[in-house]
Design brief:
Largest sheet: none
Distance between the termini: 25 Å
Length: about 140
């Protein structure tokens, strides 16, 4: 229980700081991304997200920069940009993960936790929250 409390306090601080960023705070999930999330299930999206994160961060740093990589249609891409986890510079700036060290599995897990929390905190479109059952199906595979 205490771990979840400290996690919430940490996430509150991270999202407060990200909310002050003109760049990060402008990202929102679009309706088609919510539909994709609802159709695929949250667990599947996070699994796909792990694969995308590994791919993105295995590229040479000169080949990957959030300034040159477009925000793709996948919800994870939007979430990565919104949470400051889209590139090594942002990871260092927002999350104090050194851009000079290789990302470990725990770093990838951390990125997924932040992305998951960001998605959960987003305002869902009305057509997805018509009933409690549809709300639950969005986050259960």
């Amino acid at each position: 229980m205490e771990n979840r409390i400290s996690e919430n306090i940490y996430f509150t601080d991270i999202f407060r700081r990200l909310g002050c960023s003109q760049v990060c705070s402008k990202f929102k999930l679009r309706d088609e991304q919510w539909d994709y999330l609802a159709k695929r299930g949250f667990d599947s999206i996070l699994l796909e997200g792990r694969t995308l994160i590994v791919k993105i961060f295995s590229e040479e740093p000169t080949n990957h920069s959030c300034k040159i990589s477009p925000v793709q249609t996948h919800p994870i891409f939007t979430a990565l940009h919104a949470t400051g986890t889209c590139c090594r510079s942002s990871l260092q700036k927002w999350h104090k993960i050194s851009k000079d060290k290789e990302l470990k599995e725990k770093d990838i897990f951390y990125i997924l936790l932040v992305v998951k929390e960001w998605i959960i905190r987003q305002e869902k479109p009305n057509h997805l929250i018509k009933s409690e059952k549809s709300q639950l199906s969005l986050f259960c595979s």
